[in-house]
Amino acid sequence: MVSLKELQDTAREELFLAGNSTCAGCGLELALRWAMKALGPKTALVAPASCLNVVVGLWPKTAPNFPFINMAFAASAAAASGLAAAFKAKGWGDMTSLVFAGDGGTTDIGIQGISGAAERNSNILYVCYDNEAYMNTGIQRSSSTPHGARTTTTPFGKQRFKKNLPAIVAAHNVPYVATCCISYPIDLYEKLKKAKDIQGFRYIHILAPCPPGWGFASEDTVRMGKMAVETGFWILYEIENGEFKLSKPSKKYLDPSKRRPIQEYLEIQKRFNTLTEVGLVKWEENIKNAWKYIDLELEIKEKNK
Questions:
Q1: Is residue 67 within 8 Å of 99, Cβ to Cβ?
Q2: Cβ–Cβ < 8 Å for 197, 119
Q3: pTM to 2 decimal places
Q4: What are phi and psi of 71, to 5 degrees?
Q5: What is the DSSP letter of 20?
Q6: Which of 60, 3, 50, 59 is nearest to 22 (CA)?
Q7: pLDDT tens string 66-95
Q8: Distance between terminal CA atoms of the chain?
């Protein structure tokens, strides 16, 4: 667990600098700032086409105070694998090869490269900041867009639930998979710190609320992430060497009575304003099923002790 002094010292350090062009209340900025606090300056970041490519600003006044590479949509995992191989050849064992990609470049266009790198167990850290649509190009639906959400390509609400990318990556038997949320920065920081010191392919999926894309006030970003966890929509956990562990902020929501109604989370986002009563019932069932899976994982873990 991170000490208070380390947290205080870390809070002062910024490697993703002020003056970037992220939107007010951007979840991506919070995710990246805390990630870089955990990983430190000896990190080379690969970013596929995404919001991150454009918010960094123009040289020589760019926001990243660390090596930063813009990459084609599908090639980020392959590029980071190449960096890791180069660092090994040079004997730079203290360098981290990092991908920081949106959900479009991860769950859709980048998934083939991710699967290849995961199967090879390439020594890279892949982070998905999930704002649940292609936000940079006009809010089009991705496979990570949740059921019922309106986008420019699903004007009446998407009819499918999110693709479970953390579970897909975990099925590759990689050393480390985790989920995070920008509203729980200590949990995020600790997981990134842990992942930094693990060899092989590591994957972290961060929920990063987007005010213009989701339709909520920019000052409510942290509140939105907390509600996602409190309703049981977003579950925080780790899978380390195949062992599942529910993270502290999500533990109490094993008890369904402790969860806030999912309606409270959905009704404060404009993207869900076409959701019907039938759609709400589907949401409730989906969350119940997700937690049944968590119960099963914990039961298996207990039996294997």
A1: no
A2: no
A3: 0.96
A4: -135, 155
A5: -
A6: 50
A7: 999 999 999 999 999 999 999 999 999 999
A8: 23
What CA–CA distance (Å, rounded) separates 51 from 140?
13
For residues 106 and 4, the answer to whether their CB atoms sit within 8 Å is no
DSSP state of 260: P
CB–CB of 79/87 below 8 Å?
Answer: no
The type of residue at 36 is M
Tokens found for residue 196: 């930094």
Furthest C-alpha separation in the chain: 59
Q: Domains of the chain, with CATH numbers? A: 4-303 (3.40.50.970)
Full 3-state SS string of 200-225: CCEEEEEECCCHHHHCCCHHHHHHHH
Q: What is the pLDDT of residues 32-62, one digit of tens each?
A: 999 999 999 999 999 999 999 989 988 778 8
Rounded Cα gap, residues 151 and 267, in angstroms:
16
- What whole-number distance in Å separates Cα of residue 233 and Cα of residue 227? 8
Pairing of the two strands 176-181 and 237-240: antiparallel
Beta strands in the chain (DSSP E): 43-48, 68-71, 96-102, 125-130, 176-181, 202-207, 237-240, 243-246
d(CA 93, CA 89): 9
Alpha-carbon gap, residue 166 to 217, rounded angstroms: 29
Tokens for 20, please give them.
């970037």
For residue 261, give Cα distances in angstroms to 159, 171, 202, 230, 283.
Answer: 21, 31, 33, 9, 10
| Dihedral Cα 134, 61, 211, 45, nearest 10 deg | 50
* Cβ count near 189 (within 10 Å): 21
